[in-house]
Amino acid sequence: KAGVTQTPRYLIKTRGQQVTLSCSPISGHRSVSWYQQTPGQGLQFLFEYFSETQRNKGNFPGRFSGRQFSNSRSEMNVSTLELGDSALYLCASSFGGEYNEQFFGPGTRLTVL
Amino acid sequence: DAKTTQPNSMESNEEEPVHLPCNHSTISGTDYIHWYRQLPSQGPEYVIHGLTSNVNNRMASLAIAEDRKSSTLILHRATLRDAAVYYCILRDDQGAQKLVFGQGTRLTINP
């Protein structure tokens, strides 16, 4: 079956702009989680959505937000971009239940200039 | 979030077994031990997980100490494709999907 897909794969923005990233989970998966990966901080959890509701949230400022649609596809938005937001943004999907293997997408590489 | 400690890097030779250690002295009774790995230019991928007993799957084996304060991921016969960063993660499997990644172990495989 098809894996997790993320679009776009690469993005260049300037400071102050906003950006929206998209994630399509594996068919049947209802949970979508987002992570930020930087060389300095490593992989950090942003938030998780399950059945269109945010179920868990990491320690990121309110500029980072997300949502999930009825078909489980998810988007994350970053407003007022800062240079430090340059990172690889990874999306992971799972069934969301007790068997918690997460399947990661290839990520979106965001560069903020 | 319970913490894990792993060596920053390890090196091994192709076709030899690799033992990747992880210390988790503050593990609680309900924490599962999960391992993920991240190959170059890819997202992380699930490797294996366990609670108390040793576990085997097609990718690897997980050996868990009797007191559960440490575990070892075993790759029985390493190949060049196993070169990756390996992450040991503790999770309370109550449905929460949050993975707390440490710095992991960068595994280099020599031909």
Detailed description of the structure:
- The complex is a heterodimer of chains A (113) and B (111).
- Helix content of chain A is 0%, strand content 53%.
- Chain A contains no helices and eleven strands.
- The radius of gyration of chain A is 13 Å and the shape is globular.
- Chain B has no helices and nine strands.
- A five-stranded mixed β-sheet of chain B has the order 1-9-8-3-4, with no helix packed on it.
- Helix content of chain B is 0%, strand content 47%.
- The model of chain B has no long low-confidence stretch (mean pLDDT 92).
- Chain B starts with 8 loop residues before the first strand and ends with a strand.
- Chain A binds chain B through residues 4, 31, 33, 35, 42-45, 48, 50, 55-56, 58, 90, 92, 94, 96-98, 100-107, and chain B through 34, 36, 42-46, 49, 87, 91, 93, 95-104.
Kindly list the characteristics that best describe this protein:
heterodimer, A: 113 residues, mainly beta, seven-stranded mixed β-sheet, four-stranded antiparallel β-sheet, 0% helix, B: 111 residues, five-stranded mixed β-sheet, 47% strand
Short overview:
Chain A has 113 residues and is mainly β.
Give the SSE map.
The complex is a heterodimer of chains A (113) and B (111).
Chain A lengths: L4 E3 L2 E4 L5 E6 L6 E8 L3 E9 L2 E5 L6 E5 L5 E5 L8 E8 L8 E2 L3 E5 L1
Chain B lengths: L8 E5 L4 E6 L7 E8 L6 E6 L4 E2 L4 E4 L5 E6 L8 E9 L12 E6 L1
Parallel strand pairs in B: 1-9
Antiparallel strand pairs in B: 2-7, 3-4, 3-8, 5-6, 6-7, 8-9
Spell the H/E element sequence of chain B: EEEEEEEEE
Total strand segments of chain A: 11
Largest sheet composition of chain A: 7 strands, mixed
Rounded to an integer in angstroms, the radius of gyration calculated over CA atoms of chain B is 13 Å
* Alpha-beta classification of chain B: mainly beta
What share of the residues of chain A does DSSP label as strand, in percent? over 45%
How many DSSP H or I helices of chain A?
Answer: 0
Shape of chain A: globular
